[in-house]
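New to this. Help decode both lines:
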Amino acid sequence: MMSTLTHLDEAGSAHMVDVSEKTVTTRIARAEAYITMKSETLSMITEGRHKKGDVFATARIAGIMAAKKCPELIPLCHTLLLTSVKVNLTAEPENARVRIETMCKLDAKTGVEMEALTAASVAALTLYDMCKAVDKGMVIENIRLLEKEGGRTGHWKAE
Protein backbone atom coordinates (compact mmCIF):
# COMPACT_ATOMS: atom_id res chain seq x y z
CA MET A 1 0.00 0.00 0.00
CA MET A 2 1.24 3.47 -0.86
CA SER A 3 2.30 5.60 2.10
CA THR A 4 1.26 8.91 0.53
CA LEU A 5 -1.70 10.15 -1.43
CA THR A 6 -0.42 11.12 -4.87
CA HIS A 7 -2.93 13.95 -5.37
CA LEU A 8 -1.67 15.87 -2.33
CA ASP A 9 1.54 17.89 -2.32
CA GLU A 10 3.94 18.30 0.64
CA ALA A 11 1.67 20.97 2.16
CA GLY A 12 -1.44 18.79 1.81
CA SER A 13 -2.91 20.79 -1.07
CA ALA A 14 -4.65 18.98 -3.92
CA HIS A 15 -2.83 18.98 -7.26
CA MET A 16 -2.76 17.10 -10.53
CA VAL A 17 -0.05 14.44 -10.53
CA ASP A 18 2.87 15.13 -12.88
CA VAL A 19 3.21 12.04 -15.08
CA SER A 20 5.79 13.50 -17.48
CA GLU A 21 8.58 11.19 -16.23
CA LYS A 22 6.45 8.03 -16.41
CA THR A 23 6.74 5.50 -19.21
CA VAL A 24 4.02 4.99 -21.78
CA THR A 25 2.55 1.49 -21.37
CA THR A 26 -0.61 -0.26 -22.42
CA ARG A 27 -3.09 0.20 -19.62
CA ILE A 28 -6.40 -1.55 -19.12
CA ALA A 29 -8.99 -1.21 -16.37
CA ARG A 30 -12.21 -3.12 -15.78
CA ALA A 31 -14.98 -2.06 -13.41
CA GLU A 32 -18.49 -3.13 -12.51
CA ALA A 33 -21.73 -1.85 -11.03
CA TYR A 34 -25.10 -3.40 -10.29
CA ILE A 35 -28.58 -1.93 -10.38
CA THR A 36 -31.30 -3.86 -8.59
CA MET A 37 -34.93 -3.30 -9.53
CA LYS A 38 -38.37 -4.85 -9.48
CA SER A 39 -38.63 -8.02 -11.55
CA GLU A 40 -41.33 -6.35 -13.64
CA THR A 41 -38.98 -3.49 -14.49
CA LEU A 42 -36.24 -5.87 -15.60
CA SER A 43 -38.73 -7.82 -17.71
CA MET A 44 -39.90 -4.61 -19.36
CA ILE A 45 -36.30 -3.79 -20.29
CA THR A 46 -35.29 -7.24 -21.53
CA GLU A 47 -38.52 -7.81 -23.46
CA GLY A 48 -38.21 -4.45 -25.24
CA ARG A 49 -41.46 -3.10 -23.79
CA HIS A 50 -40.01 0.13 -22.40
CA LYS A 51 -41.62 3.21 -23.95
CA LYS A 52 -38.26 5.02 -24.10
CA GLY A 53 -36.72 2.40 -26.39
CA ASP A 54 -33.62 0.23 -26.00
CA VAL A 55 -32.57 0.92 -22.41
CA PHE A 56 -29.37 -1.14 -22.62
CA ALA A 57 -28.21 0.58 -25.82
CA THR A 58 -28.76 4.01 -24.28
CA ALA A 59 -26.93 3.05 -21.06
CA ARG A 60 -24.05 1.58 -23.10
CA ILE A 61 -23.62 4.80 -25.08
CA ALA A 62 -23.87 6.89 -21.89
CA GLY A 63 -21.14 4.80 -20.26
CA ILE A 64 -18.83 5.20 -23.26
CA MET A 65 -19.43 8.95 -23.37
CA ALA A 66 -18.82 9.23 -19.62
CA ALA A 67 -15.44 7.49 -19.86
CA LYS A 68 -14.41 10.00 -22.52
CA LYS A 69 -15.52 12.93 -20.33
CA CYS A 70 -13.94 11.72 -17.07
CA PRO A 71 -11.55 14.69 -16.66
CA GLU A 72 -14.51 17.07 -16.97
CA LEU A 73 -16.26 15.28 -14.09
CA ILE A 74 -13.37 14.42 -11.75
CA PRO A 75 -11.15 17.46 -11.21
CA LEU A 76 -7.67 15.91 -11.03
CA CYS A 77 -8.01 13.30 -13.79
CA HIS A 78 -5.73 13.60 -16.80
CA THR A 79 -7.21 14.01 -20.27
CA LEU A 80 -6.65 10.65 -21.95
CA LEU A 81 -6.89 9.38 -25.51
CA LEU A 82 -8.82 6.18 -24.94
CA THR A 83 -8.32 3.53 -27.60
CA SER A 84 -11.18 1.30 -26.46
CA VAL A 85 -14.18 1.55 -24.16
CA LYS A 86 -16.54 -1.36 -23.72
CA VAL A 87 -19.73 -1.38 -21.66
CA ASN A 88 -21.56 -4.67 -21.27
CA LEU A 89 -24.95 -4.94 -19.56
CA THR A 90 -26.20 -8.33 -18.45
CA ALA A 91 -29.67 -8.97 -17.06
CA GLU A 92 -29.68 -11.24 -14.01
CA PRO A 93 -33.38 -12.13 -13.63
CA GLU A 94 -32.68 -14.49 -10.72
CA ASN A 95 -31.49 -11.46 -8.72
CA ALA A 96 -33.74 -8.84 -10.37
CA ARG A 97 -30.75 -6.77 -11.35
CA VAL A 98 -28.46 -5.72 -14.16
CA ARG A 99 -24.71 -6.18 -14.00
CA ILE A 100 -22.69 -3.53 -15.80
CA GLU A 101 -19.10 -4.35 -16.67
CA THR A 102 -16.81 -1.82 -18.31
CA MET A 103 -13.34 -1.95 -19.83
CA CYS A 104 -11.15 1.00 -20.82
CA LYS A 105 -7.84 0.70 -22.66
CA LEU A 106 -5.08 2.99 -23.91
CA ASP A 107 -1.35 3.47 -24.28
CA ALA A 108 -0.40 6.25 -21.86
CA LYS A 109 1.59 7.40 -18.84
CA THR A 110 -1.33 7.09 -16.43
CA GLY A 111 -4.04 4.55 -15.74
CA VAL A 112 -7.68 4.32 -16.76
CA GLU A 113 -9.28 3.14 -13.53
CA MET A 114 -11.35 6.30 -13.10
CA GLU A 115 -12.62 6.10 -16.67
CA ALA A 116 -13.79 2.49 -16.19
CA LEU A 117 -15.45 3.35 -12.86
CA THR A 118 -17.10 6.44 -14.33
CA ALA A 119 -18.42 4.45 -17.29
CA ALA A 120 -19.98 1.86 -14.96
CA SER A 121 -21.49 4.54 -12.72
CA VAL A 122 -23.02 6.59 -15.52
CA ALA A 123 -24.38 3.52 -17.30
CA ALA A 124 -26.13 2.58 -14.03
CA LEU A 125 -27.42 6.13 -13.56
CA THR A 126 -28.76 6.10 -17.11
CA LEU A 127 -30.65 2.87 -16.44
CA TYR A 128 -32.10 4.52 -13.35
CA ASP A 129 -33.06 7.65 -15.27
CA MET A 130 -34.79 5.72 -18.03
CA CYS A 131 -36.76 3.51 -15.62
CA LYS A 132 -37.47 5.80 -12.67
CA ALA A 133 -41.03 6.48 -13.86
CA VAL A 134 -41.92 2.83 -13.25
CA ASP A 135 -39.50 1.96 -10.42
CA LYS A 136 -38.18 4.71 -8.14
CA GLY A 137 -36.84 2.15 -5.67
CA MET A 138 -34.00 0.88 -7.87
CA VAL A 139 -30.66 0.59 -6.06
CA ILE A 140 -27.26 1.21 -7.63
CA GLU A 141 -24.59 -0.68 -5.70
CA ASN A 142 -21.23 -2.39 -5.63
CA ILE A 143 -19.43 -0.01 -7.97
CA ARG A 144 -15.85 -1.21 -7.91
CA LEU A 145 -12.64 -1.73 -9.80
CA LEU A 146 -12.28 -5.34 -10.95
CA GLU A 147 -8.85 -5.25 -12.51
CA LYS A 148 -6.09 -2.98 -13.79
CA GLU A 149 -3.07 -3.75 -15.92
CA GLY A 150 -0.03 -1.75 -16.91
CA GLY A 151 2.04 1.00 -15.38
CA ARG A 152 4.51 0.97 -12.52
CA THR A 153 2.29 -1.08 -10.20
CA GLY A 154 1.61 -3.75 -12.82
CA HIS A 155 -1.36 -6.07 -12.64
CA TRP A 156 -3.99 -5.90 -9.89
CA LYS A 157 -7.17 -7.96 -9.66
CA ALA A 158 -10.00 -7.79 -7.12
CA GLU A 159 -10.51 -10.87 -5.00
Q: What stands out?
A: The CA atoms of residues 64 and 85 lie 6 Å apart. DSSP finds four helices and five strands in the chain. The chain has a mean pLDDT of 91. The beta strands are 25-36, 84-92, 97-108, 139-149, 156-157.
